[in-house]
């Protein structure tokens, strides 16, 4: 989630942005092809394209202090239900605060109130780890709030020293929830600010998007957050969840999704910034209770249709309705199993572009592809933003490519994105400053060369902990080599 200042109508207020993406309809001949149809050299084999991902060691989960309370004694809560929804809600930052003279804000409280309108039912459990600025965290079962004397929650533990930026705490929360509230299927929601794959070096810069309040599950008190590589280990220790939801900005990236692909059946998130206003948890829980056997396609339809409706109706804050026509937004759902084939398609395109010296085509894509903001204060012209819609980037490169091999590799990758990787995608509104039509986004972002003509590689190496080449997707594909090549091409 991100805090941006936007003027809407004549009512200037501070709001926070969501995001969604729609599959572009192009006139390319997208031939049907599978990963096994593509041949590669020994160079690609050495990158590990055709070998299984190396499993991380399974370190024990060791949490500091008396953070885990005994399990509940309610035998009826131990009965297996259809779903358990687990929300790891890290509001140990500005998301706990109220803004604009109290007219809105306290976003975690708002979302929990929505959950309490439905609460835990005979079909669906709702459990939350709620991190609160200045108060640590509490672990609660959400119940339906009925009357003034009803709190709508049952507290299972309070942890004043909880580090909500520790990936081991997320894993422990999930394992606890699965034990205490067993279900046939599980949904995990990570609720916080997000920064995509980038891991900021907190000794050199402020966290996340450039202020002290932003990051990936960033805890402003412990100065800790979940790194991209830790996401995979977090999910490995947590065990499989049927739906993984990022209620946070910029997390629907190939690099992020690839880290968690083996531990979930559906990935929900945004390529762009997301409103701190959050998902409508009342509607989500009502849908899940009414559709307990919902398929991934049906679950995807719910998120996408709700998002369209939300942006069509605007935001109601008391007597004021704030229109959202000026907010560019995306949301998409991914098929995790398909991510196993992504390195093959990426590498096929990257190799063709480099081997055929498609410099002009890549320059055109770098200059014109839809980008998503990742810094604050706002980089309005997106000169420093490296997060780019993968489908749009490849579409533009194919448009200017000279060699048939490059065009074919691009078409194969685009077809794979549309037919296999992205289940549902929607893009709303436009970025009028850059001329981006968000209806053309494909549903998944990726790292690319920045538009700035300045070489800022040395500054980036100091600002961020993680090297791009160390990510799992980089090790499995030639995309990191392609970026190094395109950086040189762009700076010529």
Offer a quick outline of the entry.
With 492 residues, the chain is of the alpha+beta class.
- Please tally the β strands and state the result: 20
β-sheet strand percentage: 15-25%
Overall geometry comes to: globular
Q: Structural class of the secondary elements? A: alpha+beta
CA distance, first residue to last residue: 36 Å
According to CATH, the fold-level topology of the largest domain is: Rossmann fold
The biggest sheet amounts to: 9 strands, mixed
Number of helices: 14
Strand order of the largest sheet: 8-7-6-3-9-10-11-14-17
CATH class value of the largest domain: Alpha Beta
> Percent helix among the residues?
25-40%
Features:
492 residues, Rossmann fold, nine-stranded mixed β-sheet, three-stranded antiparallel β-sheet, 14 helices, disordered N terminus
Describe the structure.
By secondary structure, this protein is an alpha+beta fold. It folds into 2 domains: 22-52 and 341-491, no CATH class; 80-337, Rossmann fold. 31% of the residues lie in helices and 20% in strands. It is built from 14 helices and 20 strands. The chain has helices at 42-46, 107-116, 167-180, 228-238, 254-260, 281-290, 296-313, 342-355, 359-368, 390-400, 404-421, 457-463, 472-476, 479-491; strands spanning 3-8, 11-16, 81-91, 98-99, 104-105, 124-132, 136-142, 153-159, 183-191, 243-247, 267-269, 315-317, 320-322, 329-334, 371-372, 387-389, 422-428, 430-431, 436-437, 445-447. The protein has a 9-stranded mixed β-sheet, with helices on both faces. Strand 9 (183-191), helix 4 (228-238) and strand 10 (243-247) form a beta-alpha-beta unit. The protein starts with a strand and ends with a helix.
């Amino acid at each position: 989630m991100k805090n941006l200042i936007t003027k809407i109508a004549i009512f200037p207020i501070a709001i926070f942005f969501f995001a969604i993406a729609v599959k572009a309809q192009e006139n390319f001949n997208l031939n049907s092809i599978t990963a096994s149809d593509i041949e590669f050299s020994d160079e690609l084999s050495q990158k590990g394209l055709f070998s299984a991902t190396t499993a991380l060691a399974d370190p024990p989960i060791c949490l500091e202090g008396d953070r885990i309370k005994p399990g509940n004694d309610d035998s009826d809560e131990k009965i297996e239900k259809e779903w358990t929804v687990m929300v790891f809600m890290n509001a140990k930052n500005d998301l706990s605060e109220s803004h604009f003279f109290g007219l809105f804000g306290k976003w975690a409280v708002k979302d929990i109130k929505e959950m309490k309108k439905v609460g835990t039912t005979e079909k669906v459990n709702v459990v939350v780890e709620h991190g609160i600025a200045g108060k640590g965290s509490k672990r609660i079962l959400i119940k339906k709030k009925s009357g003034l004397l009803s709190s709508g929650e049952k507290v299972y533990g309070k942890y004043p020293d909880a580090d909500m930026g520790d990936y081991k705490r997320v894993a422990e929360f999930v394992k606890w929830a699965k034990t205490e509230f067993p279900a046939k299927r599980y949904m995990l929601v990570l609720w916080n600010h997000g920064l995509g794959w980038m891991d900021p070096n907190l000794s050199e810069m402020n966290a996340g998007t450039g202020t002290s309040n932003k990051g990936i599950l960033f805890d402003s008190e412990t100065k800790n957050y979940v790194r991209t590589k830790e996401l995979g280990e977090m999910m490995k220790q947590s065990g499989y969840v049927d739906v993984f939801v990022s209620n946070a900005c910029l997390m629907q990236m190939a690099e992020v999704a690839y880290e968690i692909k083996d531990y979930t059946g559906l990935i929900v998130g945004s390529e762009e910034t997301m409103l701190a206003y959050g998902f409508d948890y009342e509607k989500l829980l009502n849908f899940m209770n009414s559709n307990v056997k919902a398929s991934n396609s049906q679950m995807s339809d719910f998120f996408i249709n709700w998002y369209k409706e939300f942006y069509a109706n605007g935001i109601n804050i008391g007597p004021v309705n704030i229109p959202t026509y000026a907010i560019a937004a995306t949301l998409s759902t991914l098929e995790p199993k398909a991510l196993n084939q992504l390195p093959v398609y990426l590498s096929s395109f990257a190799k063709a572009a480099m081997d055929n010296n498609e410099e002009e085509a890549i320059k055109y894509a770098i200059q014109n592809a839809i980008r998503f903001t990742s810094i604050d204060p706002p980089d309005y012209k997106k000169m420093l933003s490296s997060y780019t819609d993968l489908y749009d980037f490849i579409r533009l490169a194919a448009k200017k490519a000279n060699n048939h091999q490059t065009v074919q590799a691009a078409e194969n990758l685009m077809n794979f994105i549309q037919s296999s990787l992205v289940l549902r995608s929607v893009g709303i509104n436009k970025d009028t400053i850059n001329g981006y039509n968000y209806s053309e986004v494909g549903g998944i972002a990726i790292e690319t060369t920045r538009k700035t003509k300045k070489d800022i590689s040395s500054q980036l190496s100091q600002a961020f902990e993680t090297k791009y080449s160390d990510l799992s997707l980089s090790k499995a594909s030639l995309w990191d080599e392609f970026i190094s090549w395109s950086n040189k091409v762009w700076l010529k």
